[in-house]
Amino acid sequence: MRHQLMIIVLTTIAMLFGASIQPAYAADTIPCYQPTRLSAGYNARVTTQSNLPNRMRSEPSLRNNVIGRIPAGAEVYVIEGPRCEEGFYWWRVQYGNLVGWTAEGNGWNLYWLEPSGVVGPGPTPVVCALPNRLNVGGNGRVTPGLPNVVRSAPGTQSTGAYWSVVLGEIPGGGVFNVLNGPQCGTDGRWWWEVQYQDLVGWTAEGEGINTYWVEPVDINAPQCAGFMVSRLIPGGLGRVTTTPNLPNHIRTLPGYANTSLGLIPAGGWFTVMSGPYCADNTAWWQVSYGDVVGWTAEGQGNTYWLEPR
C-alpha cells in the first residue's frame, strides 16, 4: 500500500512539473559566446589564416541559401549587425555589388572576419561602363570568332557570383533572342538573359568600355548574296572597325570600280544615310563622314569592316 501511494505521488509531481521541464535552450536560441570585433559602418576583411572564402547567405542562418563567396583577404563593407543565430554572430555586408549575411567566426575561438580599420563607405561598387546596344524583345548575335558563354545568373564565380554556373555556349555568329536585362554583374560586365535554340540563360555583352562580344542584329534586314546579315541602320551611326585596323573607302557609287572620294580611318564614326545596296558580293551604305557623302562597303566574306554604334 505504501509503495502504491509513493507511485501516485511521483506520477502527480511529474504531471504537474514535467511540462515545464525544458532544455536549457532550443536549437534556434543557442547563445553566442565569441566576442565580436566588427562594427557597422566600417570595413572588414576575410582572414587569411585558413585561406578559405567566407560564404554569404540570403539571411543570417546556416539553413539559408548561399548567394556568394568572399575570397580570403577580400574587404567588405559592414552594413548592419551583429545578429546572433545558431551560436554565430552574423553581419550584413556588401562585397562588390553583392549584399548578404556572413558569419564572423566559428562561434568559439576562430575568427573568419577581422576589422580592417577603414571607415566606410566601404568597397567601391562594381561599375559596368560598356554602353548597351541590345534591346529586350530584339535579337542579338555573337560577333564572328569565339563563342559566348551562357550562365545561370549574371557574373562569374571568380568574382563572387558563386551561384552562376555555365549552361552552354553560343557559337560565333549565333543569333539569339533577348529576353531580359541588362544587369550589371559582379565582374563589371553587362549581362542579358537570352534564348539560343533550347538554351536559356545569361550572357555578357562585352567588357571594358569598347569591347563587344555580342551585337544587335535585325533578322528581317536585307541580306546581300555572298555576304553576312547587314548590321547598320539608315539614320543611325556606324564606325569603321579597328580590326583589321584599316581605313574604308568612300566611293561615288556602290561598287569597288567606282571613284574613291576619300577614306574613313579605323575607328572613325559616320552617319548612315541610306542602304544597303548589293554589289560585288557585299552590302554598300550611303554615309556622311565630315563633309564627304558617298558609298562604303560593309565588309567582305565573313569579315565586317563597319559596325553599328
From TrEMBL:
Residues 55-103 form the SH3b domain. The keyword Membrane does not apply. Residues 1-26 form the signal peptide. Transmembrane segments: none annotated. It comes from the Bacteria. Gene3D superfamilies: SH3 Domains (2.30.30.40). It holds the Pfam family SH3_3. InterPro entries: SH3-like_bac-type. Keywords: Signal. This is SH3 domain-containing protein. The lineage of its organism: Bacteria, Bacillati, Chloroflexota, Candidatus Thermofontia, Phototrophicales.
